[in-house]
Amino acid sequence: MSETSEFCTFWQTLLPNFSASELDSIEQLYPDPKFDPKSPYKETCEGLGAQSRRIEAAYGHYAYVAPVRQTAHLASSQGGLVHLYHWALPRSILDASHADNMYYETYNKDIREISESQKALSGTLHAYLTSFIATGNPNTVRGRYPHRPEWSPFEQRDQKFMHFGKDNEELIGEDVAPPAKIVVDDWAREETEFWWSKTDLSEQA
Questions:
Q1: Is residue 14 within 8 Å of 205, Cβ to Cβ?
Q2: Hey, where are the domains in the chain?
Q3: Consecutive 10-residue averages of pLDDT for the chain (205 residues)
Q4: Which is nearest to 164 in space by CA: 92, 110, 83?
Q5: How many angstroms separate the CA atoms of 98 and 89, rounded?
Q6: In 10 A of CB 194, how many CB atoms?
């Protein structure tokens, strides 16, 4: 996807119930790198179109991030115990990809042998998940990684989530970082609140 018109046509086709004004809002939320030098969506990978990073971000927020946040909000507001996370480990210069976390969930030998940092990330995620499966709480069973951060439930008043692999860029030749940390869920907030506000329209498509 190289041209601005392709970005616009994509959304017109996917969401035919959106008005011209709503489609303009998408354009403004995701600044076009062809015209805005400050756009965070400038594509730097050889062989990819100028709109690739932009459409990847916009579709990811629309299809994945906003629905997950909406589910967490609705479930927690009804008294459900919700543990929200964001997988952020880049395995290539394209950043983290959908389903990358599955390689880490099972404390897989291939991952453990990459490095101590990758072993710790895999072990930490595995410990949380096995504890959750066994008890309904990711913190109860301490296992091999007893000193991992306390994973507090998502709540309306503080809206925190667990960030896995944040700032660990070892696999692309940069620095390592702690495997997990609990943070306030403010990433891409404006963008996903826009998509959330348009749920009724998008479900009619």
A1: yes
A2: 1-80+188-205, 85-184
A3: 96 95 96 95 90 95 94 91 94 83 95 97 98 96 95 89 95 95 92 92 69
A4: 83
A5: 11
A6: 18
Residue 86, beta-bridge partner list: 163
3-state secondary structure of 111: helix
37-96 pLDDT, tens digit per residue, is 999 999 988 889 999 999 999 999 999 999 999 999 999 999 889 999 999 999 887 788
What's the number of CA atoms in the CB half-sphere (13 Å) around residue 145?
22
Contact 54, 7 (CB under 8 A): yes
Among the listed residues 84, 94, 83, 89, the one whose alpha carbon sits nearest the alpha carbon of residue 104: 89
Q: What is the token pair recorded at 197?
A: 């506000």
Give DSSP secondary structure letters for 125-147. HHHHHHHHHHHS-TTS--TT-TT
Q: Are 76 and 153 in contact (CB under 8 A)?
A: yes
**What is the rounded CA–CA span in Å between residue 52 and residue 41?**
8
Rounded to an integer, what distance in angstroms lies between the CA atom of residue 129 and that of residue 124?
9
Helices 52-60, 4-14: axis angle to 10 degrees equals 20
C-alpha–C-alpha distance, residues 97 and 185, integer Å? 19
Report the distance separating Cα 200 and Cα 155, nearest Å.
24
Full 3-state SS string of 20-83: HHHHHHHHHHCCCCCCCCCCCCCCCCCCCCCCHHHHHHHHHHHHHHHHHHHHHHHHHHCCCCCC
